[in-house]
Amino acid sequence: MSQEPQRRNAKGRQRHRGGPRKFSQSAPAQRSRRADPARLTAFRVLRAVALDDAYANLVLPAEIRRARLNKRDAAFATELTYGTLRAQGTYDTILAQAVDRPLEQLDPPVLNALRLGTHQLLAMRVDDHAAVNETVALVRDQVGAGASGLVNAVLRKVGVRTLQEWFQELTAELDEVQSLALRHAHPPWIVRAMRQSLKLHGRAEQLVPLLEADNAAPEVHLVGLHAGGQQPGDAIEAAVAAGAVRSEVIEAAAVFRGGDISRLDGVREGILRVQDIGSQWVARALAGPAIAPGERWLDLCAGPGGKAALLASLAAEAGAHLTANEPAPHRAELVRKALAPISPQAWSVRTGDGRSISDTGQVYDRIIVDAPCTGLGALRRRPEARWRRQPSDLPQLTHLQQELLEAAVGVLASGGLLAYVTCSPHPAETLVQVEDTLSRHPELTLLEAQPLMEDLALPAGRQLLAAAPAALSATAAGCVQLWPHAHGTDAMFLALFRKEAR
Ligand SMILES: C[S@@+](CC[C@H](N)C(=O)[O-])C[C@H]1O[C@@H](n2cnc3c(N)ncnc32)[C@H](O)[C@@H]1O
């Protein structure tokens, strides 16, 4: 976000000439006065995100197909959509300087178009004229001629400065957190939470690299499953043959950089799944220590089934059985689909609230609580998420996390293992929950998660973990917190408890 394309000469007015240009001056089209299809695609996604609470990563591919965009225009629409959504708060601060009324008084489609135009002007290599004229054409086509004059005038004001010049102007009076928030396009409360968490894990000086990593596209990771008579390694071999690169971090995983993932045979068969290596790693940590045949496992919050599929695959190999629990019926259905390729003796799905799991009358030897959380550890994946989440979401989520942990402890067998996992590094969702749980349950011991995860890793993975700085507390030292900038994974958190045998 703090980087911008080199587009101006020393006088700061001319577009750069020569040198690599990602998008042509007229990209993707100055073909007509109707809305350009790539920009219209981005506009439609922004509208769905704002009006229907849609996820851009789900809506965008469908809109690209609907508009029949070619590869180049699809890339343009993707960069425009994700870049605009990610930096929305920063662009709104800039736009507030150029609009003569509070932004809330603008029609939402006009505000979305202004955000799209601002991203093109300040962060994409699109010529100023094309950025302004195409946005005006989009507004005329989609909103009406009335708003096009305002959009033209506002974007001309925005384009008077470069992004760096706007930052200089706007951050002069801001404190450090607000300034970082503006420059790296994160809400200040998230910057504060990240700073606090990094500090607790001995990484106080890594805030900027983390914020930068949140703004970069994540790699696509694959996991191979034990399913359909195949070993996990077979699926990975097939993926490698199709262009994936074997992971050097953990086994039965690969990194895919080759485009359309659904073309891989294993993905269609369900024996190869897209799953962040951080998620794979924490799920394997639960299954890591020696498994006795006949063990009963529970995934208390299983939807949509990523970790459940890996755990069921490991259960199938070891002769254990996984119960995958999920309260939302449509998500429970996704779990069933995810588990379908795996031997049916190894799993079952329960559709129900995790807080009432004791109703089953069962106890479990290994339980994962992959709790509903703010998702602040996966901001790379959901460009709109950081602006949608509010600090006011925390009390309800942390209360639910605590209730789910209580329910899990209640059905954990004596001597059993409990993994508490979040895809958030927020201290209130992680270390505070662990300390509260330990204080309520003297029968629980916090295990050292890092050596367990090291045992599961390949040399490069072991090195990544070993490079972790000293944490500030014994609790933090016992848990593992992964980070996008340090491990190349989502910021997954893992605490591993054992219930002492009576
Ligand atoms: C972080 S997601 C789990 C991701 C999943 N483990 C995976 O790897 O694909 C949290 C899940 O908890 C579910 N959930 C929400 N409330 C719950 C409750 N009261 N009991 C159990 N699960 C709940 C959500 O529907 C969501 O599917």
Q: Could you describe the 3D structure shown?
A:
There is one protein chain. With 502 residues, the protein is an alpha/beta fold. It folds into three domains: 37-164, N-utilizing Substance Protein B Homolog, Chain A; 187-217 and 281-502, 3-Layer(aba) Sandwich (Rossmann fold), CATH 3.40.50; 219-275. Helix content is 49%, strand content 12%. The chain is built from 23 helices and twelve strands. It has helices spanning 37-52, 56-66, 71-86, 88-98, 108-123, 128-142, 145-158, 163-171, 176-184, 188-200, 207-214, 232-241, 265-269, 277-287, 306-318, 329-339, 385-388, 394-410, 431-440, 449-456, 459-466, 474-478, 484-487; strands at residues 220-224, 245-246, 253-256, 272-274, 296-299, 321-326, 347-351, 364-370, 412-422, 444-447, 480-481, 493-499. Strands 5, 6, 7, 8, 9, 10, 11 and 12 form an eight-stranded mixed β-sheet that branches. The protein has a four-stranded antiparallel β-sheet with strand order 2-3-1-4. Helix 16 links the parallel strand 6 (321-326) and strand 7 (347-351). The protein starts with 36 loop residues before the first helix and ends with a strand. Residues 6-32 have low confidence and may be disordered. It binds S-adenosylmethionine (SAM). S-adenosylmethionine binds next to helix 15. InterPro entries: MeTrfase_RsmB-F_NOP2_cat, MeTrfase_RsmB-F_NOP2_dom, NusB-like_sf, NusB_RsmB_TIM44, RCMT, SAM-dependent_MTases_sf. Residues 199-500 form the SAM-dependent MTase RsmB/NOP-type domain. One of its GO terms (molecular function) is RNA methyltransferase activity.
